[in-house]
Amino acid sequence: MIKSDIIAQANDAANAKLKADYDALGEALDRRGIDIAAIKSKVAKYGVAVPSWGVGTGGTRFARFPGTGEPRDIFDKLDDCGVIHQLTRATPSVSLHFPWDAQPAADLNSKAEEVGLTFDAMNSNTFQDQENQQYSYKFGSLSHTDAATRQQAIDHNIACIALGREIGSKALTIWVGDGSNFPGQTNFTRQFERYLEATRQVYNALPEDWTLLTEHKMYEPAFYSTVVQDWGTNLLIAQQMGDKAKCLVDLGHHAPNVNIEMIVARLTQFGKLGGFHFNDSKYGDDDLDTGSIDPYRLFLVFNELVEAENNPDFNPMHMLDQSHNVTDPIESLMVSATEVQRAYAQALLVDRTVLEGFQESNDALMATTTLKHGFRTDVEPILAMARLEAGGAIDPVAAYRASNYRAQVSAIRPQVSGAGGGIV
Ligand code: LRH
Ligand code: MN
Ligand code: MN
């Protein structure tokens, strides 16, 4: 963790400017009939989970260029996640991936307590083969033609639930790479029937207070067809399973230009929006930093979430899911967490009564201008003040760089080589 005097020193240097900016924004919002303190308090309560796999440097199938001080295991990863939350106060939980993060529950719990974090959704992995695994997932997992392979995938998911119960998780996220690479390779219907039957076994093993999140993705690793390819199939799964099953929307898992905010609205309307994997993309599942390409789209997603916020049954899970190839993952995740908060704060600023009036009178121009007014507002002073008051850093990246954390962990974590990495 980072020493508190380093954070205090960095904050002291930025405090006077922040106060002036916050007061000025408060006055401007007051003229719009908005109480800045109310927005700040909602932002302060907002949290987004960090993916354990996000704190290691990512890569592509061509290469991986590891940074210095790469985490060696889940315990190093939890240290890094602790720093992200310490500085941003926006990431109180971590989402684990199994078997990548498999360790005894007691050890995971004591490390999480040490760094002040809890565990979010469990992620199973039946898209890769593991050492000593009996059956291969080369031709699928939950939808495989072979019953024993399907059973192996079912058992893995049930084992994830068992471990999750011991570490306080309340959800299992399933994403499968199952699909096909050639027309005719699989029978779409029979493959989906097998998937549904196997997923039913996992669903039946869920504790009462758990949620099953299924994640759709258009393509990759299968390049002709994917079993759970879009939100339509995902919704069918959630409907077939029952009340505890909901859909997870990973922003990068759609074709370019798909209207994701509308998918969010539809799933919300029918009580089936279970959670998010936030990231950004230009072409496909790029796993770029959240808000780095199209922050307006992120805002439009949050506009739908704020619209539904007053429904007591509406509580989707929020998580980042990114791959950091050229940045320090801690810095990227800190910035991304604040980008999610920013979109939330901007969406909170939209005057919904006025917007509805323009919608009802079909004033398209004024409706879209009303919406955009929220997006155009620079809410950084609100986010920074919420962080400061919670003991975080006014400028998380500046405080992180001042702390020399990466250099310090590099002294104990061995340098990893990227030579030959990547699979073309
Ligand atoms: C698939 C995915 C899914 C996996 C993660 C590593 O592309 O988004 O959420 O669990 O990446
Ligand atoms: Mn994902
Ligand atoms: Mn993905």
Question: Care to describe what's here?
Answer:
- By secondary structure, this protein is α/β, with parallel strands linked by helices.
- The chain has one domain (4-408): Divalent-metal-dependent TIM barrel enzymes (TIM Barrel).
- The chain has helices at 4-31, 36-45, 74-88, 105-115, 147-166, 188-204, 231-241, 260-269, 295-308, 329-348, 352-360, 364-376, 380-389, 396-403, 405-412; strands at 50-51, 93-98, 118-124, 171-174, 179-180, 211-215, 225-226, 245-250, 273-278, 317-320.
- The strands form 2 sheets. An 8-stranded parallel β-sheet has the order 1-2-3-4-6-8-9-10. Strands 5-7 form a two-stranded antiparallel sheet.
- Helix 1 packs across helix 13 (380-389) and helix 3 packs across helix 14 (396-403).
- The protein is globular, with a radius of gyration of 22 Å.
- The mean pLDDT is 97.
- It binds 6-deoxy-beta-L-fructofuranose (LRH) and manganese (II) ion (MN) (2 copies).
List the helices and strands and how they pair.
Layout: H1 4-31, H2 36-45, E1 50-51, H3 74-88, E2 93-98, H4 105-115, E3 118-124, H5 147-166, E4 171-174, E5 179-180, H6 188-204, E6 211-215, E7 225-226, H7 231-241, E8 245-250, H8 260-269, E9 273-278, H9 295-308, E10 317-320, H10 329-348, H11 352-360, H12 364-376, H13 380-389, H14 396-403, H15 405-412
Parallel strand pairs: 1-2, 2-3, 3-4, 4-6, 6-8, 8-9, 9-10
Antiparallel strand pairs: 5-7
The structure holds 6-deoxy-beta-L-fructofuranose (LRH) and manganese (II) ion (2 copies).
